[in-house]
Amino acid sequence: MTATTTANTLSVLLAVSATTTMLVSAEQAPKELPWSAEKCAELGYSEKFDACAEIEFCEGDAYGGGYNGGRRLNRQLRAMDSMEMYGEGQNEGEVEVWDEDVYYDENGNSITEDVEVGLYVEDEGAGRPATFGWRIPGEACAWPGPLIRMSRGKRYGLFVSGSGNEETITNIHTHGLHVPGHGNADDVTRSVSGSDVIIYEYHIPSYHMGGTHWYHSHWHHNSEHHVGGGAFGMLIVDDGENVGEGVDAGVEAFLSNEKILIASNHEDIYGPWIVNGVQREQYDFNVDEWYRLRILIVNLDDHSSSRTISFGDECEAHAIAHDGMFRFQVPAAASQTTFSIGDASRLDVAIRCSSDSTISIYDEVVASIKTSSGNTNSLPSPFTSSGEAWSSTRPGYLVDLRDVEADGAFSIKLDETNINEVQYSLEKPLCAGGTDFKFDTIQEWTLSLAYHPFHLHIYPMQVVSQNGECGENHEYGEYYDTITIKHSYRRLYTRKMGKCKVRLAFRDVGGKTLMQCHVFKHGDQGSMAFIHVVGGPAQENEPRVHKCASEPCDEPVNIPLCEGGSAEDY
Ligand SMILES: [Cu+2]
């Protein structure tokens, strides 16, 4: 690997530098995707969906824009010297090009190309354009993509178009939604390219818990490349009614008094972290007012899988939800200023600050909190009017399984290229003793993960290990959709490997689902597997394709069942 500056990339640097004097003065929360019944009528799907929206994959020109990475990268390179990850550092103001990064085409063949991985300019602020992204048609290709907000009990039609480029294949995974993983719903084998348009059908059941989730591109072999370019965004399911026992006007006001924090870094680089697409986000808080901070962590470096996020001593913070699912008792009794959180995970906290403060990831300040007095709103409170915690309403897929006898047991071992020594395959699902999993069963799974974050699509998992085997990111008894035990590659050799036990309920939704390592590089290398949950409801395939320039478009992919036979009908 070599670091070079070329005439071609230098011109990109100059073009971007001109925009870097813009300072961040208020929160940069992304624009919301506009759902509407009118859009359904316009597209001819009024009877099928309650709300429709169009979202477009996009490709930008370059990374950059106020991306103050040089100084920090050099410092972290020194810390990583012993791993010999990078041959050379680079200086501020230089464009860095690393030769021979390997990517894959749609057939899985490796492509060798020069990849520009970053622009280093000394400045604060300014938005970050995406090299790959999701956008509202007509909007800029921004990092991160639009905020998708959904309501419980509604039928949504998401019309997804390609970037215009026939060579770029992608799709969308709604990380955290409890919806089918096959048919025309959240199936990662679906695909769109060019100017084609495919339809994702999402019925958010009325019992779905409200929470903080996200979406990202998930086309196999290109996930790292696409998400690493900015193709992701936050997805929120609104709380609606019946959130919990004891929820009063103050708690309701608190739950909707939200702030958004989408933290991401950059593929192959050890920091820096940016928030909401900017180098130093600023939040405006009223002094001593409670806010619900929705935090999403998108990590693109493949050698670490967890981090700490901390607030200054001027603030009090209580956890209220993990991975978009409320704690059983909300909020957590103890205030913390530092939280440990795994990759791809979300954390909602109740936070209030008495004066100006900062938000840091590890020891890097990524955002500031500016407080102002005089307009304090005292109504929002995470606690009930009597100052107590409240019990969240638990839908069937999120009930307490600690005292329930499991119907089945399974062990999972994640590696960089495989799960249970089987590489990702469309021909072969993962089987438990030669059979598929059964709908309406309770499972107890034992996870051996090293530092790999384990994400199971569709079905959240309750941590039932009591002695810290699941690591410091997870609390006994709470639900998560991604489990990350160890923090990084380096710590792997200094700490005992944990065997973390989780329980989960195969309820409401059946069919195929994906489990994966959520280090994007490892998923792309084959650390993913399908399982089938048989005997439950089946999701239809239609409507599926809205616009197809040349057949075939988004043909359904059927993974054979463990015991043989087709999985077309579950
Ligand atoms: Cu991994």
TrEMBL record:
One GO MF annotation is: copper ion binding
Known Pfam families for this protein?
A: Cu-oxidase_2, Cu-oxidase_3
Domain Plastocyanin-like: residue ranges = 142-240, 448-529
Q: Which organism is it from?
A: Helicotheca tamesis
The upper taxonomy is:
Eukaryota, Sar, Stramenopiles, Ochrophyta, Bacillariophyta
| Keywords (A to Z) from UniProt | Signal
Similarity comment: Belongs to the multicopper oxidase family.
Q: Kindly provide the name given to this protein in its UniProt entry.
A: Plastocyanin-like domain-containing protein
What residue stretch is flagged as signal peptide?
A: 1-26
Coiled-coil parts of chain = none
